[in-house]
Design goal:
alpha/beta, two-stranded antiparallel ribbon, 9-stranded mixed β-sheet
Amino acid sequence: MSNKPLITAASFLLTEDCNLRCRYCFEEHRKTRSMSKEVIKAGLDFLCKNSLIDGSRGFHALLFGGEPLMEPDGVEYLLEYGHQLAEETNTKFTAGIITNATILTPRIQEILKKYIPKGLTVQLSVDGVKEAHDMYRVTVDGRGSFDIIEKNIPTWKKLFEGRMHQLNVHGCCNKKTLKYLYESYIFFRETWNIPSIWFMPIHSEEWDQTDVELYESELTKIADYILQRAKAENSLDEVRLYAPIDRCLRPDRRPEAPCGAGKSFATITAEGKISPCHHLYF
């Protein structure tokens, strides 16, 4: 057993291409770079071996890109081999997918149906209501992608019926979309009825004091809604479903880094290189 933290979780860049051209995206679109089965296998073997060395006996894969659902062969092979490897080594394999929610072909649906019961989680990257989302998350020809996603939402929810805790919506916010933050939260929570939600500011933007004050105001409205609902329902479930407020329920935990990049988590590129995280790689 190792005393040092070892890499037991990684994002796999199944492709470095994407069908969207989000205006704030930090990635480069490399159409020729897709992850081979050999790289997928080597990556999972590496994570599993480390989990045996450090005694955790559990490894995790985050299917990422680009847009990972552009590569159904890679998705299917990674999930299949990950679970096979865990069974062979008496370890636990978990996996998640981050997707822009625009691709939901019959084949993708069949793959999801097989692995959702095994714990597969999916994060839908949607920035908010149509006005906010379509400002930045656009197709190759510059059209907003919200309408494409909204048509898919009933199918996404049906796939996760009875397992909605494994589906979440993640939106980005910036100077122009901050004013839609509370409205977007309510839209996700009540119109789409997706319970697990979180938002993240765009890191590359420089906010001024006015932006910070607006952000605080919007977050306060979200917090008030959550707390009112928690009181009315006499349940903390609503608090647990919204990050980062859920951390308030864990006062015994010391403040920690937002992720384990470079410690227990890394990124495996389509070509098989290892980086501390996908943001640093691109």
